[in-house]
Write a structure and sequence with these properties.
single chain, alpha/beta, TIM Barrel, 2 domains, 8-stranded parallel β-sheet, 28 helices, binds glutamine, binds zinc ion
Length: about 775
Amino acid sequence: MRTHNLGYPRIGSRRELKKNCENYWAGKITLDDLLQTGKQIRLENWKLQQEAGIDLIPTNDFSYYDHVLDTSVMLGNIPLRFLPFVQEKKKSFPSLYFAMARGYQKDGMDITALEMTKWFDTNYHYLVPEFHRKQEFGFVCTNIIDEFLEARQQGINAKPVLFGPVSYLLSGKEKESGFNKISLLGALLPVYKEILNSLQKAGASYIQLDEPFLTLDLDEPVKQAFREAYSYLSNECPGINVLLATYFEALNNNLPLACSLPVHTLHIDLVRGNRQLDDVLAQIPEHMSLSLGVVDGRNIWKNNYDDSLRLINKAAQALGEERIWIAPSCSLLHCPCDLELESDETTLPGKVKQWMSFAKQKLNEASVLKTLSSPQLDEKEKEILLAENREMIWVRATSSLIHDPKVQARTASVQDRDFERELLFAERKTLQASLLKLPMLSTTTIGSFPQTKEVREVRSKLKKGLITQKDYTDAIKTFTEEAIHIQEEIGLDVLVHGEFERNDMVEYFGEQLNGFAFTQNGWVQSYGSRCVKPPVIYGDISRPEAMTVHWINYAQSLTNKPVKGMLTGPVTILQWSFVRNDQPRSETAMQIALAIRDEVFDLEQSGVQIIQVDEPAIREGLPLRKTDWAEYLDWAVKAFKLSVAVAQPKTQIHTHMCYSEFNDIITSIAAMDADVITIETSRSQMELLDAFITYKYPNDIGPGVYDIHSPRVPSVTEMENLLRKAMKLIPVRQLWVNPDCGLKTRSWDETIQALKNMVQAAKNIRKS
Ligand code: GLN
Ligand code: ZN
């Protein structure tokens, strides 16, 4: 039996890569400094994996920005617009690389970056490869060889990792019509052959090819592509042991396909697909080894050794020990680096911390599992190793920190009627209109206003203890006052308080709820140098006291216009946190929903007339397999409804979603029954509205009329045109006028100008 790892976080345990990349972009450090940092991080990662006793250690899992971008560069897939960087020799790396990642607006050039999209159902984003009909590939960037040699020099038993050819094609986008990206396989395979053979020449005996698309729904041409690719590589690269890595889901109906591919070892995810082992054991051919992904690469809980050993022993019995590998379920990229860096008892109590495990600790778990599976280990030693883990699992399972009987009783007593508003939308609408007296095409914003340097400064000063809580509150009051005055001056109809008191739309709520813990260094890469630090949901969730009422009431006291209450929805809070693995996600979602429900109730009691419950993450929670969608959508919609249905008919409930493709989930969006939904539509020129039109979406809708992702100020005419376009598609009495999303990342100057134009556009149309 052997252990291996699929990939290690590359940001550095203290986000060294992030800091160095940003400093490099800002011209504060040299290229050499940056490369040195990269080298150090790689070396550190390799060493700690070696020390943890991992037998085969991944190389080429490091990246300065994104591993899919690295693959594109390696394969010479450089879109034509980046030609200036290719031609000018000295500009090639890293100017070309970072231009592809971030775009380039300098020296009279304006080159857009590659598009970015979510990596399966994780919170990681990759840069989408672009394909053309006559696409050519070549082994252009040979970093993968250098990195392998670098590791070997350090005495590391290295296993190069590559994004597999079929998944690489599937992850990209055709930039011309009339061809299918899969048809490029023939052009791509010879390059993979060259890479694999070069790696072998350099001394690699095992090479990991990641094909996560094997866990998705596949059509026949794609299945055929897998067969073609792997039989080609097996013929053309004799003597190379390919480890085919699948993860994020079970193979399910693609299992026969995976088993038919001529590879040395198949890696399966036994955390997400924990029920697939029997089928795999029944179908795996005799020549193939099996890598068991038993250590959760996507969450932060300690491994349950007894559970893992049951799977490992079963597999070992069926296939024989020498065919078994032990590994994390997927790359550890999606985990924070090192739990030992956590020391703040107030945000992460030691009692919770002891149940957790980050990337570094997970490697150790894989290693211990190997030891525990060894027939040479005598029973006594085994018991000692197991006892500690069992004790911890038991302590967690029975801890009063986790189990709150009141919360459990409350979720159990939820009735069907708790999910439904008292009146139907049409009746609510009439009632709300008579109370709110808003004009046609009401104008509003999505919630946050610019988080300026000043806003961030007071927060960081409070954190460092440089100012008192009162100083902080006073400062936030001032920011809120300014925001209210500005909105009144602009002439918006429904105001917001600006969210200046919030660091983050999930963390802010998590910090005030029971059942949440927070890390100091638990960063996970989101894209490029951007990292997120998800809260940890460890126990039953409840709300000890009102969370937002004070600030909304304060903002409301400053104006006669209605101010929206502003909450984050249960699905988004769940989706952007590390969740407990001892109960279904749906159960946790219901607990959060009840906590938000309490807040909706309190807001309404305090006189708030409009409450927005943001659910930007609802779509990204969709399972990878279509067959699992209905179940998810059912509880996700229920969680939202449970959180808002306590509102009286007179209270107007808004929701907001961004980056959404609505076509295939519009029925569920409608089932949420929010009085108003605001969505992102400006970049697609209202195309995203299609779903709402075809469906004849009955409730009110605010299609974003300006793109908040860019500093550009759209003109009155531009927004008026977009609105008129929307009016042709959706009855005007259903329409609201708003930007695409929150304005947190913008500056005040642009914001004011753009909102003035937006209000003017609405006024022009009202007049006409
Ligand atoms: N209310 C939030 C804001 O304006 C919504 C953010 C989001 O949709 N991601 O910032
Ligand atoms: Zn948004």
